[in-house]
């Protein structure tokens, strides 16, 4: 890895585990009550270095991973967390070159994860009816230089989706079950469909609609992530943890007029 | 998505949730005690279709996601599961174009996940001292057409690593702590380092060595995945679940001779 | 503890963790495919001893705890498990001398736990409409000599409860929410009320009725119990675990005609 | 249940879930920033009532369960929580009339749970080398009128235990493994032995000593308790939960000189 340069995004972590994600702008500096670090002084230092602020506090400076970025984004709504995002990417098959649509945009955590995963050859289409959310998400994407991979569409899901050759679709909106019938015709058959739902009532409501709308392979799960203390003589979980972020649901839409396929005798 | 074609990889799922991952070879067929399905008959049918075997059993036919593939690979050792793999990819920043090394290869589940995530512009370097494991992993990769993204190196970690411009490194070997000192000089400073460890004793041992070898930002966690039954009138978790696969550890190697960096007064 | 005597209940555990709960009847013996142990031969041996069957298999012989008994009872229905029972006892305040009612009896696991906890000075009232269940539960209680602490009432909850000076009430019936309005008048105000529910739909339905029927302090939780392997050099959870038994709900009925209390200005 | 009387212990819960455990002393009152409630005004009101402070805030007044009491005790050390206590009682077979010893006393949470469970016919022996802890625990027990069931022994475990006809023994001290060899001779064979341990390192160390000291049926587990929000239209877990309190270990000491028993051919 090349050494630190101006223009890079850097993750500072203090010895008491406080983190700061900052673009290294010439002439600017990290300003915390743990002291100041001038970015110009970091140029040429290897990533991973331990540095000292003018107050003597030490920080490590690392090149942020996509996970680091996701945990630090500006948000004005609940975001999807890395524990769920990693699994969602695998379930949506969101690899390089794919075209994935999501609704809604929210603060853009999933948008960023998808843009990162599909790469410069892929594409993310992000629906939200709120302009302010998409403005925020776009800014978050610009910080990591991936805004050009995302097409924002300010649109209410109740009006349906555009016609796109989607490889997967993800739903993260309140009352997801209200929109299935409307968006169903625009979902290519057999693509991975996913959703995140905060309550069991919504899980129940969404499953009902999906069954009625001919989705198969419906799968519901939740992911719990527990961190451990890292004193090697005292291995044990942290005292507290996040107990719930959301239920994940995955399914696949069957062909809509598949009566022929359905009745084929394939012997 | 294009319709089903010969040469595709297909995931068949029976109504009782039994799944079969098969390449659609001309003239061949899916043969189960739930009946036979001739692949030639599937050509042109849309993905997601429900088909019927000669015995009348219905199957859905879907284009497998990377997660589907990972759950179905041939294995001769414990594999890393999707719940852990998705999170590992985010923590290693294993996106398109990256170069990632892992040891050991094992049955190749992580190798495949990495190859999928880094894309055709990326590269995976996979170390294992056992030739049979690498042969198995290579075959698994060939099935998904990604073998060319992986460089297998049959080598004991005790001999160290090659010198490569790595973006991340992952360790999945028995007694991981035995190898850190040896491989440490080949790890670029600041890159994401990860490991999966079956026991708390190994977590403790690895943390001790990492601390001695100047790794920072050490983080340990475990991920629990719980599936739910999908009867919308009876939402509840499945009766049983996987209780443990492994502990995940992440860290970052500091520059080795960073005394200067360490002592810089960066005001 | 006195040594083993005929008439005692004994828990045999083989070296491969298979357990047998047996009353030590004169002239009889433990008969397993791991060998035979004549009970007469055990008399006078200290509890906790390791013995050997005629086939050479070793067994430990322990005085069973109430938990051991509960795991081994004959059942013809889903039982409540010790992980939940222990917590239920604390939440119901089911200590020595108390009078606790439950519905339904089922196979009697909770009945036994309650009878054990309230002691010979306490009383358990157990409702079930099925005679066969109560016959089974009574036999289970007779084995531990506590049948006299339980009054079985073969009655449908839809007919309400008897008028008893209850200290707590527990509900373990399908569709618990159907019965609240009927039994509400027989529940002394302020007593601990508990229920176990298999699905989130039933949790939702029960909360709605409880709120309408003036219950307060409604509390819902679930308990997960994870066992560990006990090789001291390889501490880690077992591979699999029970993912779900039921959701626990607790509440307290307010006085029914408490308009006066409600409006008192208690300054 | 009789109506509220002076001298009772009462649990006040405000509508925003803040709880207060108070003895109802004549002439005194509950004083919170949510308002004042004079205890004399509560006399004769039914338990479970909703009352109003002089500021208009409503409180429910309930007879506390042993679980309510345990969550509210004065503490100067980490206590064992109800989720663990309920299970411990079942595993120790700590029912009415039993004699149970514990070390150390700590703030007395387990002491109280044991005293409650063994009843007035039972006995708890509680060891701790610190006088201040035992003074605190005694006061906590006096508040629930159960101090006479407990014999406090201010003694270092390194000196061993007294000789008592124990029915069970529980260990909750730092470095539990240091004391096993010393206390082993005073443990009647076959009694339930339990311990709570904060770290996996201590679990490992204790198992090693227990194996060396001829304990059998060693069992290790952890209990996770997750609360749910109780809006019936939005059933979901709380946002955060306790991730760890301790690992529970249970075992049974074999007879010390059981070579005869061990070698008996019991056919």
Give a written overview of the molecule.
The structure is a homotetramer of 267-residue chains. The first copy, chain A, is of the alpha/beta class and 267 residues long. Chain A folds into 2 domains: 9-64, Roll (Vcp-like ATPase, Chain A, domain 2), CATH 3.10.330.20; 67-263, 3-Layer(aba) Sandwich (Rossmann fold). In chain A, 24% of the residues lie in helices and 30% in strands. The first copy, chain A, has helices at 66-72, 82-92, 109-118, 131-143, 180-183, 200-212, 259-263, and strands spanning 9-14, 19-23, 29-32, 35-38, 50-52, 58-62, 99-103, 123-128, 150-154, 168-171, 193-197, 215-229, 236-237, 240-242, 247-253. Chain A has an 8-stranded mixed β-sheet with strand order 9-8-7-10-11-15-12-13, with helices on both faces. A 4-stranded antiparallel β-sheet of chain A has the order 2-1-6-5, covered by helices on one side. The first copy, chain A, is globular, with a radius of gyration of 22 Å. The interface between A and B is large, with 93 and 92 residues. Strand 12 of chain C pairs antiparallel with strand 12 of chain D, so a sheet runs across the interface.
């Amino acid at each position: 890895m090349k050494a630190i340069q101006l223009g890079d995004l850097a993750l500072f972590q203090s010895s008491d585990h406080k983190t700061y994600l900052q673009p290294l702008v010439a002439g600017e500096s990290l300003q915390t009550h743990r002291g100041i670090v001038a970015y110009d002084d970091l140029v040429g230092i290897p990533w991973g270095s331990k540095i000292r602020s003018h107050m003597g506090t030490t920080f490590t400076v690392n090149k942020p991973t996509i996970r680091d970025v996701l945990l630090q984004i500006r948000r004005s709504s609940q975001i999807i967390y890395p524990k769920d995002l990693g699994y969602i990417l695998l379930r949506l098959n969101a690899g390089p070159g794919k075209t994935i649509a999501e609704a809604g945009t929210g603060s853009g955590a999933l948008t960023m994860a998808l843009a990162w995963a599909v790469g410069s050859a892929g594409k993310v289409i992000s629906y939200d009816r709120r302009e302010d959310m998409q403005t925020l998400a776009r800014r978050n994407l610009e910080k990591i230089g991936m805004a050009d991979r995302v097409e924002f569409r300010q649109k209410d899901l109740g009006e349906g989706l555009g016609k796109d050759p989607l490889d997967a679709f993800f739903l993260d909106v309140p009352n997801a079950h209200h929109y299935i019938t409307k968006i169903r015709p625009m979902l290519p058959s057999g693509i991975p469909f996913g959703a995140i739902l905060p309550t069991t009532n919504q899980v129940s409501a969404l499953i009902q609609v999906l069954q009625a709308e001919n989705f198969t392979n419906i799968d519901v799960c939740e992911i719990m992530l527990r961190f451990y203390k890292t004193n090697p003589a005292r291995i044990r979980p942290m005292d507290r943890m996040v107990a719930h972020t959301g239920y994940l649901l995955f399914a696949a839409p069957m062909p809509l007029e598949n009566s022929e396929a359905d009745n084929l005798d394939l012997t």
